[in-house]
Arginyl-tRNA--protein transferase 1
Amino acid sequence: MANPDFLGSRKVGTTTVLFPYGCNDSSCGYCDVTVGNKSYMMMASVDRPGENLLGITPDDYKTLLDRGWRRSGNIIYKPDMRGSCCQEYTIRLKSSAFKPNSKQRKATNAWSKFIHGIDYKRDQVQKYPISREEKRRKRLSPFNVVEKIHESEYATLKAKNPLEPAHKFEIVLEENNFTEEKYQLFEHYQKKIHNDEASEGGFKRFLCANPFKPPYSVDDKGRKIGAYHQCYYLDGRLIAMAVLDLLPDCVSGVYFMYHTDFSQWSFGKLSAVREIALAEEGGYEYYYMGYYIHSCPKMRYKCEYQPAEILDPECYDWHSFNDDFRKILDVKPYYSPSLETILTTEGSEQSMTLLKNYYINTKKGISSTHDDTVFTTDMSGVVKLEDISPIIDDTRILVGRKLAIAEMISGWEEMPIDEPGNAKHKIAEAIATLGLELTPKVIVCLALGQQ
Ligand SMILES: [Zn+2]
C-alpha cells in the first residue's frame, strides 16, 4: 500500500476532480418522452467560493468530448446511446475545410447587406472605388468564411473607409458572467422559441456556470481557453448570444439564442458560420457543434455543415459524416462502424443475435431504476469490468480534503466490483466512462458534503 502521508501532502491543485452522480434518466426534449433520455453524469464544480476542489481542466474536457461527453453548466454527462430514446452523436468539423453551402453563404451576405444599408454600397463605389485587380480577385476567389463573416462588423468596415453603415453591428467575446440584459434575451428566447418559462437561477446554472478549473485563460499557443459568451450587439442592443467553450484545438458550441425580432436573418446559420470562422481564425483546428440527433428532424440541419466527421460511439474513431452514413442511421438508430465490423466478421449465430440487440433499440421506453449503473444497463462505449480491475486499486480519490487511493478504503479488498451500491462499483463506473487513458489524470471525489 502507498504511504498515506505522501498522498495527503499532495495538492489537488489544477488536477481534474469529479464527483460521480451516476446514471440519470430524464425527459427528452427531442421526442418529448417523460423518461428515456439516459446518461451517466458527473458534477465538475460547485458554486461555493473558496471551497471548490472540483473542476475539470480544458484539456481533460476536450478528451471527454472525444468520448461522447458534453456539459450542461457545470455538470458533465455522457449519453447512453444504446439505451436512450434518441441517439446523440458527437460530430465535428475541421474549421479550415469548411465549405459553406449556398444557404449559408446567402445568410451571411444578406446580414451584411442589411447592416450596410442601401446608401453604403453606392457611396463606397463612388467615393472609395476598389481597383480593377481587387475586383477581379474578389470575383474569382471562393467564399472566404473569415473575410465574409467580418464584413458586417463595424470595426472591419471602419478600418476600410470612414463611411457610416446603416447599423452598428459589433461582436464581443466576453466572460460568461450574468447580466440583466443577457437574462432578458434568454427569457424572451425561452418563451418565444421553446414556449417555456425561464428563471434567473436556471440561466446562471445552465449558461453562466462552467466546469473549468482555473487558471485556463490562454494556452501555450496564445489561444484563449475557457467558457465565453459571444455577444451580438446591434446599435448597442444585445440581439443574440452564443455560449462557447474555447478548448485546446477546438471551439465547442454550447448554446445559442437570439431575439425573434431578427428571425428572418437565419441566425442559426449565421451563428454556426461565425463560430467556424472563430475557430479558423483563432487557430482551433475543429468546431464541435453539439450532438447530431438523426431521430429529431429539427436537429438534422447540423449535417449541412460539411465536411463533417462523426464519432464511433463504441471505439471513438472518427468517420466521414456523409450521405451514406446518414442513410444507415435511417434504418439503424444506433450505429457503430467498429462494432458492426467485429460482429459481422465473427459471423456466429451468437454474434448475430448480439448485433440485432445492439441495433434494435430494445431498451427504448424502459425507464431506469435507482440502482442502475453503466454496467447493469450495458451502456454504450464504456470500458469493460475486466479491463478496469487491474487499475482500479490505484485510482486517486478525494476523502474529505485529503487525497488517497482507492485501495485505502476500508474493506476494499472484500468489496465485489460487480455489486452496485458499493464504493468500488461506483469508482469502476467513473473509470468505465472516463476511459483508461484519462483515469490516471483524474481524482474521483466520493463525498461532496465532506469538502
Ligand atoms: Zn428522445
The longest helix spans residues 267-282. The two ends are 24 Å apart (CA to CA). The chain has a mean pLDDT of 89.
